[in-house]
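Re: beginner question about structure tokens

> Can someone show what the tokenized structure looks like for a real chain? I only ever see the sequence side.

Sure, here's an example I had lying around. Input first:
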Amino acid sequence: MFSSLFIALAMYSKIPVPQTQWNEKNMKYAMCFFPFVGVFIGLVFVGVFRFSNIFAFGNIAKGAMLTVVPVLITGGIHIDGFIDTADAISSYESRERRLEILKDPHVGAFSIIWTVTYFIMYFGLCSEINENNVIIIAVGFVLSRILSGYGAVTIQKARKDGLLVAFADGAKQNVVKIILIVFGFAVAVIMTEINFIVGCSCICGAVMSYYCYKHFAIKTFGGATGDLAGFFLQICEMIILIAAVFVDKLVV
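And the corresponding structure tokens:
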């Protein structure tokens, strides 16, 4: 089990872990531990928020620091998927050509526009985070990874190769699905206990984004890929952030 944890942390974060053999046995439960990356991000996120309040940083500085936390911890692996997917979507090419674009290491103009827009929005919303919603947003990093992991083992794949296929095929899928569902219910309880209305809004937004992603991936690409999973995770986190900030302002 520890080997599966180390593989998940090594693949989806920059957290230092002992070297582990990437074999079928160790990868069986790796996706179960994907949400643990979100736990670490959430803890650091809240820590940075508290730090900025203690030292009376302004909203701009606080927003900037909070924006870079997920990127620094993950190493930008999901942003990379977001960028590649933005290029593929913006190409308006055939399904086969879009899948080729996902593999292309070059960055197009539209993906830069999408990414800059994404970070401007993320930064602006992070500057509006307060004590009422920061914990819910932090837990949202776990929720987004639960949904992404669930999609990895349930949504049909667009290709027969790639990292997503390696993780999904190596996983003990029924066990992974059950564990992620249990984690999902636990996270939902935590979010609604903190603030029922804000928590429900974030959960509904995240779940809706998952089903939109599933439909979009199958229709546009013929299934999921690692890049699409990263794209979804970034969109899911943005939706959770939007819901937490805006609904909090409406109910306060």
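Each token stands for a local structural state, so reading them left to right follows the chain. Residues 2-251 form one domain.
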